[in-house]
Design goal:
By secondary structure, the protein is α/β, with parallel strands linked by helices. 34% of the residues lie in helices and 22% in strands. The protein is globular.
């Protein structure tokens, strides 16, 4: 099947300048031709859609997600799994999120939905699965339902092997505490002993699995980077040595600004205010988030200015808001709209190991694309004016009020 998207304003996430009067031809799920400057594309036999100047760009990614946290014992595994699948599907269809990386999921729900969506029978994003996140007894976010408590080197070795056996794509290790948790779960505290770190990372290297490291203070960040973490999540507090290690190792930083920045007093946009009201954070967690926000923003900016590899992950729910919320926070915290868009497209795909096929609009790449009404380089909120979503060149969502096709 051939599809020609004509009269587009192209943001390919390679060239920072949008290209007017552009056309993209898709064949068998991949980009077959890109025509700029009004050049007629090779559209013989193709279905043609005139985009009337709307903005065509790669689909969005969120590389730090979870299923919702359910404390109600009456919510069964089956129901929670169904809710997660619905969230993923809605993220694709209603927000143009074409790829996600999970950072902890009970009962290997992420593995199940990864395989279900990959089969082609259901509409959902590409899912990169971690299974359950691994922490210590008395570790981070045990109330989430997505944690496994491990102790000692062989406790972690056993847990990592169990994750591998159940088909995960990467291993999530929680090296430290967090902002959201009980009084003994603090982001300034590290949890793993050196021998536990060494064993867990050694096994991941041996088996060829990347480590997604939850690390929230300088000691935890440095431990993650020196042991070979592929990504560091959060990094609420860092120091200059952390930045140097990022630069030397080429590891990725996923800052998850929403965890500290989305409180009632900090919400400024309509989307933020609505999300904060629905989230209804407990007062003590609001205090913890606001106490951490200045340091978090400082090291986000330092990493950005230092050229650290960075990609966009929200750690927020639901997917219909998560990427857009996090992108707005990147811009408010000092990133340009171009840096932010790259973080949510090309960089995110590269972090997940699929940058050769996804994350940008280039000939030969897979056609996971979105069309929006306004220029996201003027205002990232324009991404909410979603017109079309394509996965592998197939239209999976059409939000246009007026359809003009030939």
């Amino acid at each position: 099947m051939r599809l020609a998207l004509t009269n587009a304003t192209l943001i390919d996430c390679v060239d920072p300048e949008p290209a007017a009067r552009a056309s993209v031809v898709v064949e068998d799920g991949r980009i077959a031709d890109i025509a700029r400057g009004g050049r007629a594309p090779s559209a013989d036999g193709a279905r043609v859609i005139d985009l009337q100047g709307a903005y065509l760009l790669p689909g969005l990614w969120d590389v730090h997600i979870h299923p919702e946290y359910v404390s109600d014992p009456n919510v069964t595994v089956a129901r929670q799994t169904a809710r997660f699948g619905e969230n993923l599907s809605r993220g694709l269809i209603d927000a143009g999120v074409v790829g996600v990386r999970c950072g902890g999921s009970a009962n290997f729900m992420d593995v199940a939905w990864r395989d279900a969506f990959a089969s082609g029978g259901l509409n959902g994003p590409r899912v990169f699965a971690s299974g359950i996140f691994l922490t210590t007894t008395g570790g981070h976010f045990l109330t989430s339902g997505h944690a496994r408590e491990c102790d000692g080197p062989y406790g972690f070795v056993n847990a990592v092997r169990e994750q591998i056996k159940n088909g995960v794509d990467h291993i999530k290790l929680n090296l430290s505490g967090g902002v959201m948790g009980p009084f003994w779960d603090q982001h300034v505290h590290s949890f793993l002993l050196e021998e536990e770190l060494a064993a867990a990372f050694a096994l991941c290297r041996q088996r060829g699995y990347d480590v997604m490291a939850h690390a929230t203070n300088p000691d935890a960040v440095k431990a993650a980077l020196t042991h070979g973490a592929h990504t560091v999540e959060h990094g609420y507090i860092m120091d200059d040595e952390c930045i140097r290690l990022f630069q030397e190792t080429g590891a990725w930083y996923v800052p998850t600004l929403g965890i500290t920045h989305l409180t009632p007093s900090q919400a400024t946009s309509e989307r933020e205010r609505r999300w904060v009201e629905q989230k209804n954070l407990a007062p003590d967690l609001v205090v913890r988030a606001e106490a951490a926000v200045d340091e978090h923003r400082r090291w986000f900016r330092q990493a950005l200015d230092s050229g650290v590899n960075m990609a966009l992950g929200s750690d927020l729910y639901p997917l219909t808001d998560s990427a857009l919320l996090e992108m707005g926070l990147w811009v408010k915290s000092g990133a340009t709209t171009w840096q932010t868009l790259l973080a949510a497209t090309r960089n995110a795909a590269e972090l997940c190991g699929v940058g050769d096929d996804l994350g940008a609009i280039e000939t030969g790449k897979i056609a996971d694309l979105i069309v929006v009404g306004g220029n996201p380089l003027d205002d990232v909120e324009n991404l909410s004016d979603l017109r079309l979503v394509l996965k592998e060149g197939r239209i999976v969502a059409d939000h246009r009020d007026v359809r003009e096709e030939t």
